[in-house]
Hints:
The complex is a heterotrimer of chains A (about 950), B (about 100) and C (about 425). With about 950 residues, chain A is of the alpha+beta class. Chain A is about 25% helix and about 30% strand. In chain A, strands 8, 9, 10, 11, 12, 13 and 26 form a seven-stranded mixed β-sheet that branches. A six-stranded mixed β-sheet of chain A has the order 39-40-41-38-32-42, sandwiched between helices. Chain A has a six-stranded antiparallel β-barrel with strand order 43-46-45-44-47-48. In chain A, helix 5 runs parallel beside helix 6 and helix 8 (about 315-325) crosses helix 9 (about 340-350). With about 100 residues, chain B is of the alpha+beta class. Chain B contains two helices and six strands, in the order βββαβββα. With about 425 residues, chain C is of the alpha+beta class. Chain C contains ten helices and 20 strands. In chain C, the strands form four sheets. An eight-stranded mixed β-sheet of chain C has the order 6-7-5-15-16-17-14-18. A six-stranded mixed β-sheet of chain C has the order 9-2-1-13-20-19, sandwiched between helices. A three-stranded antiparallel β-sheet of chain C has the order 3-8-4, with no helix packed on it. Chain C starts with 5 loop residues before the first helix and ends in a 31-residue tail after the last helix. Chains in contact: A-B, A-C, B-C. Chains A and C meet through strand 6, helix 3, helix 4, helix 12 and helix 13 of A and helix 1, helix 5, helix 7, helix 9 and strand 18 of C.
Amino acid sequence: MTLRTSKQVGEWINRNKKISFKFEGEQFTAFEGDTISSALWAADQKVLGRSFKYHRPRGVLSLANHDVNVLMTDGIDTNIRADVVEVKDGMVLTAVNTTGGVKKDKSSYIDSISPLLPVGFYYKAFHTPRRFFPFWEKVIRNAAGLGIVNFDYPRILKRKQHSHCDVLVIGAGPTGLTAAYEAAQAGLEVTLVDENRQVGGSLTYDRGGETAASKQLNDLLIKVANQSNIKMLTGTYAAGYYPDHLIPVVSEGGINKVRAKTVIVASGAFEQPPVFRYNDLPGVMLGSAAQRLIYRYGVKPFNNGIVVTANDYGYRVALDLLEAGTKVVAVVDLRKGTNTCGAAITLAKRGIKIYAGYCVYEALASSDKSSVRGAVLCEYDNIANVALTKNKLTLECDGIAMSAGWAPAGALLYQAGTGMQFDNSVQQFVPSRLPAGIFAAGKVNGIFDLEQRLQDGKRAANEALRYLGLEAPQITVARPVGQPSDLSCPSHPYPMVPHDKGKNFVDFDEDIQIKDFVNAAKEGFDNIELMKRFTTVGMGPSQGKHSNMNAIRILARIRDLPVEKIGTTTSRPFFHPTPIGHLGGRGFHAHRLTSLHDWHQANGAVFTDIGAWKRAAYYPTNGQTKEQAIQTEAMAVRTAAGIIDGSSFGKIEVHGPDAAEFLERFFTGSYKTQKVGRCRYVMLLDDSGVIADDGIASRLADDLFYLSIGTSNAAAVYREMQRSQQMWQLDIGLVNVTGAFGAINIAGPVARTILSALTDLDLSYESFPISSVRESHVAGVEARLIRVAFVSDVGYELHIPMAHVPHVWNALLEAGKQHGLRPFGSDTQRLLRLEMGHPMPGVDTDGLTNPFEIGADWAIEMNKPYFIGQRSLQILAKRPLRKQLVPFVLAENFKGEMPMDCNLVVDGRAILGRVTSIAYSKFINRCIGFAYVSPAKTAVGSTFEIRTDSGTLVKATVAAAPFIQNQKGA
Amino acid sequence: MKLLTCPMNGTRPLSEFIFGGEYREGPDQNTCTDAEWAAFVHNRSGAPGDKKEWWYHSPSGTWFIAERNTLTDKVSRTYLLGANNNNSNTAQEASK
Amino acid sequence: MPLRLLKFAVSKDHPAPRFFKSHEAPKKSYDVVIIGGGGHGLAAAYYLAKDHGITNVAVLEKGYIGGGNTGRNTTIVRSNYLTPEGVNFYDASVKIYEGLSEELDLNLFYSTRGHFTLAHTESAMRTMRWRAEVNKHVGVESRVVGPDEIAKACPQLDLSCSGQAPILGALFHAPGSVARHDGVAWGYARGADRLGAEIHQNTEVLAIDVKNGKVCGVKTNKGYIETKQVLCAVAGFTPRITEMVDLETPIVIHPLQACVTEPMKPWLDTILVSGSLHVYVSQSSRGELVMGSSLDPYEVHSTRSTLDFVEGLTSHMLDMFPFLSNVKVVRQWAGMADMTPDFAPIMGKTPIEGFYIDAGWGTWGFKATPISGKTMAQTIANDSAPDLIHSFRLSRFEDYELTGEKGAASVGH
């Protein structure tokens, strides 16, 4: 049987295009534009999903993604919101979280044992005896969860958009459309977003059986369409509010990060279910859901229905049902008294029975519990809020529409820091203190009358205009003032019907009933935050959209407090759950490459990440292992020569008359006495005296120092130099030339021979000794040559413009070919500098190491007036050392398990220190390293024990650095 | 993402900036006690309120001072050190 | 179904008493006042009563119990720290945790999942080895494992991280667990209450009365309370309390954010952390992925959310698990982490007599809840801190004796 109605004005489906899909193994057809749920409902499919905890059959509740009754899996995708996701041709759908299908879900037995599962039951059991918990945990974990994630789902890289506007209007209902139009009229750039695929909000479904709303919508749309300065984004929800008016708006295509000057929130309100026994049966739905089915999708919600209501809205729903061809068996109004609103009068005229002062005590389930067969009505005590069960009246029906009140869709307002106050007259939290540049209008502002909403949209637009410094008249739109018992009140103060047997649901995501709140309070969880955590109300995927308000009302009743004393839980992004792929976007990983990167790659380099840089670590040839490659490269440097790409080193120029003064304050050494053409070691400390970095300062002129420092900290060191200069205001300039200069280090006994073929510079010891710098040409390229002894006694760092590095590199390789020159990588460099006895910051030091602990006293000029860390060093100097770094060797011909760096230096149970570097040096045929040891045992020849990975103890002997003899070279 | 106004480059997204900690004036290191220096190095005025802070605009390499309330995260003004205040600074004091 | 649930089925009255009594107002005086009704404060109250027989104790909570970082953290419990002091301390905590559900008779869902700290760089591998060595030395089960073993425990993980940050290995810590954070607070609250301590919610401390360097009372929004001993256990609010007694500390507050996806059927059994990618993730018993990242980069005393955080985190999650593209994030939130310069807590006595501090818990407070409660109770009862927390004393900063946790905690959890 089909529930499809005749064509509705403004419907969202295209009846000319049929779609076919499968649900739970059965074939269905739909129209293009149907959602999955509307298509299935049209085909009279009532059980569309199963509830999270009790596996109760569930159908349409809000049809608006305010609940997750109906979540589905389609191929590799899961947790699909069937209520709002358009059905596509060929979909193969199943409901999530069932055992053996949605119709005959074997897990539905849980519903019948629900008395064993009181609120918070999982806190109360399964933990004793302890050894059984893993079993129960597995059971519980498997029972929980919704869809099954498919590991084949592809990574989808969504681009992010950024946009700016004067006014962002959230919600394109009548209020939002009006606000957007008014703001646009004043010439502002307006962005209007609405989560629905068509605009119009309530005008698309709330019609009260008439077509006036549809016409009104058309008029509004024409006005808006003529405003070219309105950007309309449909199918797009505002996901959250972030500081300074940043609002990510999310559509299927991805995220658009909107930065708005002002924001008008016209997001409407969520209809709230009244709570009675079996209010979750398929066929019991919100009035607005029934209307959405009718007017958007041309689907009759049911054939013979009851409307249970507590506001005038329900009467309009009844008229809409009649319009759709549903027989309205009765309108049941929790409120006493004769309703004189237009809809009520029309209904009465049409002979519809109205039970005022009645409630639905319980819905009656069909024998298979999959649908409604009737409802039991009772008189309702509207003060005590209980059913008077003396006289029960049973009506037959196959559906119930519920309209008892609203909760503001105020998530973004809350997130923006809006103060919300409970307005008794409209029974709703409304904004009382809005942050600058944020405005609220329409239902979210407690304004429900359509004409008033339009006015409120205009008011908000005018306020936004004035906020932006434009002129606009002040408009006042007042919320009705009265008692909640007044018939005009949009929300009932307590639309609950207690029932001895329960199953009156407040939170449909989490299967939470009235008694769960009562019992939680009984156990002491009687403030809203604790209650939320204990009952899990509002913690499901719909985040309380349909449940938080009722929970607050129930708690207020339990505590006998007014609602405003209860307050609300904190609203957090996201408004709707938002895909990780959308949020993650394309995913950027910034890497810096040297100009030799392609060469390294072509020559088989293995790369390593150092800071942001990709550095060549070593170049294995002919299937060499890492260790073999490193030894080969190191031997080349020791016996002939090697070159390494040092382009990633930090390079900073300090120029100006105060350059030496700056260095004296910034680093630990003395630089005023440094001669032009000479290099000195620099060490940077932090305020607490901990080593931050080190490097070399080359004095190129009286007023120019060229610093080369480590790779990973270069940016941070430069930043700190800039900060210091801001404070010191010396007569200097700082230039970070890290990316402008590349560097090549050529090192080894024949380095000089090779280099001399490419430069006119006199490389003899006498004229170019260690720790000096020259400016000259290499292979025709201008270069700064620094005579360093970091990896070898004979070594030259060539600093050349980055673009020319490959040219010089190739020239060196060519010139060195006959001499056995080969490239080496950063891993090899570590071995080489270890042989030379140089500790490396970050490798041989950690975040707490001071210079005394690595024996770097020589690098510190304590007698200077000031340097960073000086005062702390004065304090540290008085304190005993806790550990000290020493060079060490293992026994000759050591054959045991090789210790690794970070193996501990132990003395029985005491940890004395750790190995920071260790390697086998083929050149001296010895295992060498650095380790922290007890300061009492640092004399050369002292021994200590290193515990290896497997736990064996290896004896090590403190040695003298460097480990290799000075090589004069050729 | 918040916005922050660099005195040299105008209002930019926060992702372009690096926080440099509170701007603090230390004791005279030549006359202070060890304990006073240790307190300066390690302790912070952690309670919420209006703070003078270092911020760095990374793309342009500009250090500046922002006056910010650490409770509300609202920045009241930003300026280059020395441009809008008469504070002497720690290190200069120290080096005299 | 366990029999203990039967009584709920047969009784109409929900036969479960209040977790803790509701008190109209605090008494005029207490032996000990604990500021902060989070896990730490409640645990301290519990152990004061249980271990030391001190029951004339009030826990003052300005909001609701467990509403601060106890209820905001990602619930990971582990002890694979870098320093022997740290490892010993957190290991003692793990040991209490393992039996805590039984002791408090509340199922805390203490679930031992195994914890992998992934290393994507050689330098990260070094740190892992360092931690493993110290852990092993102290007797805690940690070891460095290769990609194979990681793949075995979590076959869904893309070991190349989308080619961006290949995983070289990991520190595997077998005792790594997750637990229900709320339950820990509630369980200790119930335990403390039953033993006689009083829990006062919505009770805010406005001032602390110190005379001649000694605590003599606290002023609250519900009146003045005389007491000679006050414990400050307020995490992100620590500077506000220490300011009341003019106590300087290194603590600065940075928000720490987290987020959670909608539930899905269980697939992730282990706890994964990647320092390089700034991600930690586990799957809750409800089926949600609970995810966190590193601290926010600047000081803010609020729990606001940022988009940057969730964008960065999800991007890196996709590097590890590309198939999560269409899994949805339901909610993000934040806590206020009280950070110290050396990533270790500040515990014990202070220069003010009777004012005890339990702070600097940064991003690692939840895992220490039982042992911090126990050791602070000991400190208060004896007016002397036990050896186990000696290295966490406030005076270490003046002594230039910071703890060495800095290396391990960049994104530790």
